[in-house]
Amino acid sequence: MSFEDKSTIPELDMASCYFQANFQQKLEQMSASKMVHFENDQGEKLHGQLDLPLDQKPIAYALFAHCFTCGKNLLSSRSIALALTAQNIAVLRFDFTGLGKSEGDFANTGFSSNIQDLVSAANFLRTNYEAPALLIGHSLGGAAVLYAGKAITSVKAIATVGAPSDPIHVTHLLGDEAQTIQTKGEATVNIGGRPFKLKKQFIDDLHTYDLPTYLKDLKIPLLIMHSPQDTIVNINNAAELYSSAFHPKSFISLDGADHLLSSRKDAHYVGSAIAAWVARYLPEELEQSKLATKHQAAARIDDEEGYQTEIKAGNHASVADEPSQLGGNDYGPSPYEMLSASLAACTAMTLKMYAERKGWPLMSAEVHVDHGQVHHADAESGEEKKIELFSKEIIIEGPLSEEQRVRLKHIASRCPVHLTLLNEIQIESELK
Asked: How many CA atoms lie less than 13 Å away from 142 in the CB half-sphere?
């Protein structure tokens, strides 16, 4: 059965894109990533992971389709999702029927069932959260999201990573067993070191799809990402996809990456690039991102990303990490570097505000901060008592008098963060 037969496809109603619920209730609901389950069109339970932004309502939902015989927990899938949630885009990644923790027999699935699974996942999001505005597909999953794009009417943009220009391309992974499947009806093939049973219906199903022709009528903004060094799906596939698709379409070369994006750095780049690209197609949602977060600041770390920690400060996302010598990957500033940066930024802002209020010609203020520990001068002999030392170097530019410069030096020590660090501090912790 070809997926072009629309009578068999559940359509998503654009008017029902957004799940209506009290904002505060939804915010509580979205405080952490969670495991989810939903049924496919055969009544089988599919297992998914819904990755949510930290401490803030998502500006949009994305649906992620993994590569052939892969799963939702592939390193690249997790890393791409992490980069997207950092930009307030929630991501649902799930195991296709018969893979990972999802129910069903993989041998009875095919490309058409993958597309149907994506529609079922989109219906789950529409019913319980919000319908997906973005589809992302890796490898064969990229081809699947392209076909699912017409059936999921809430979709505003599609991104593919290492996708083939024709689904039948996947049969080259089957080697000599492809012929065995054709002659005997089924065979067990080894893919990525794991055995999978495939039936003739799988290959027959692939032959019913003509992706280049289909793309000419897709009319959805498309981002194609591919590595020139991809040895599984040659980059010529990206060229054919691009030439077949209508504008608006974009291409990003993933130079140096392998097909599976096994480098976490490459996967994070993909996720960040998709988030930046899709922003153009989410104008209403981006306005909603101005909504206040629950807390002034929040941080989240899990057991899969080392010490890499998601940071949310107000409406702004960033990442903290530890340097490599302390067991981290140095993907972001350390907590003390962030504290030093806070002191530097507050000092610079305070200088500018004071100069503006006085009408002084301060052209720029640059503040350098270093942090360390030094021996306490009042410590008793032999006592190892140390204090925290923040050293500030302040560079100010402008035709200022010596009196004005001296006054600005004094004002630099009166910035709110500076005073907070000198003040008595109490911290209350509550474990939930």
From this structure: 25
Residue ranges of domains in the chain, CATH in brackets = 6-171+203-288 (3.40.50.1820), 335-422 (3.30.300.20)
* DSSP letter, residue 172: G
Cα 393 from chain centre = 37
Tokens 């959260």, located at residue:
129
> Among 30, 48, 53, which Cα is nearest to 318's?
53
How far is residue 379's CA from residue 243's CA, in Å, rounded to a whole number?
74
Q: In what order do the strands lie in the sheet with 309-313?
A: 297-300, 309-313, 316-320
- Binned at pLDDT 50, 70 and 90, residue 61 comes out as very high
The string of pLDDT tens digits covering residues 168-187 is 887 776 777 777 777 777 77
DSSP letters spanning 386-419: EEEEEEEEEEEESS--HHHHHHHHHHHTTSHHHH
pTM for this one? Answer: 0.71
Tell me how far apart the alpha carbons of residues 173 and 295 are, in angstroms, rounded to a whole number: 49
Higher pLDDT, 413 or 29: 413
Chain segment 274-288, per-residue pLDDT in tens:
999 998 898 665 545
Please state the φ and ψ torsions of residue 235, each to the nearest 5 degrees.
Answer: -65, -15
CB atoms closer than 10 angstroms to residue 316: 10
DSSP H helices in 136-244: 140-151, 177-184, 200-206, 211-215, 236-244
Assigned token pair, 280 = 């153009």
Cα–Cα distance measured from residue 406 to residue 388, given in angstroms and rounded to the nearest whole number: 25
Closest CA to 364 of 400, 407, 320, 397: 397
How many Cα atoms occupy the beta-carbon half-sphere of 237 within 13 Å?
A: 29
d(CA 143, CA 214): 11
9-23, 45-59, 290-304, 363-377, range with the lowest pLDDT? 9-23
Q: Report d(CA 290, CA 284) in Å as an integer.
A: 11
pLDDT in tens, 320-360: 888 888 888 787 888 888 899 889 999 999 999 999 999 99
**Could you give the CA distance from residue 34 to residue 38 in angstroms, rounded to a whole number?**
13
